[in-house]
Design goal:
The chain is an alpha+beta fold and 163 residues long. The protein has a single domain (4-162), classed as Aminopeptidase, CATH 3.40.630.30. It has helices spanning 14-27, 39-46, 95-109, 125-133, and strands at 4-8, 52-58, 61-70, 79-86, 114-121, 137-148, 152-162. A 7-stranded mixed β-sheet has the order 1-2-3-4-5-7-6. A hairpin with a 2-residue loop joins strand 2 and strand 3 (61-70).
Length: 163
């Protein structure tokens, strides 16, 4: 996407990142996080000590954010895990794709050998299609592992690709 800049999160970004996170957390449709999660708790999770957190901006405005971390410790630390959120008013503009492509290259350079998404909500069809188009395969389907606020219990997918 033209004009998109991806960079490391910095403390002054907290308010803008919270604005991106809040609507997705409150909706409760795509992340297994409490819908009433506080700003402080959400930022502590998103920017946790094992996370490398990034922001995507267009014309100086943060329009997306993601984190990258080891999926597991010890013998599983060579597999990366990421979470991505795009601002609602920036959806459909290629920002999530750009963030994922950036994260895969960053992870590869950092020594990760693969990337795994642990809980892709099956009803999030746009995300599933995007991850598949970027080479992720569904490794397993966890029946009714996510409680969607409107759809009830839906499957969660574990998706994986080598880097």
């Amino acid at each position: 996407m033209d004009g998109l800049n991806i960079r490391a999160f910095d403390a002054p970004d907290a308010d803008s990142v919270w604005r991106v996170l809040e609507s997705v957390i409150r909706a409760g449709e795509t992340y297994a996080l409490p819908a009433d999660m506080s700003r402080e708790a959400a930022l502590a999770y998103w920017c946790g000590p094992t996370h490398r957190t990034f922001v995507a901006e267009v014309d100086g405005r943060i329009v997306g954010t993601f984190y990258l971390r080891p999926n597991q410790q010890g013998g599983g630390a060579h597999v990366a895990n990421c979470g991505y959120i795009t601002a609602q008013d920036a959806s459909g503009r290629g920002i999530a794709r750009a963030m994922c492509e950036y994260s895969m290259e960053f992870a590869r350079r950092a020594g990760f050998r693969a990337m795994q998404f642990n809980c892709v909500v099956s009803s999030n069809v746009r995300a599933v299609r995007l991850w598949e188009s970027l080479g992720f395969a569904t490794m397993c389907r966890l029946p009714e592992a996510f409680r969607h606020p409107a759809l009830g219990y839906v499957d969660a997918l574990v998706m994986f690709r080598t880097l």
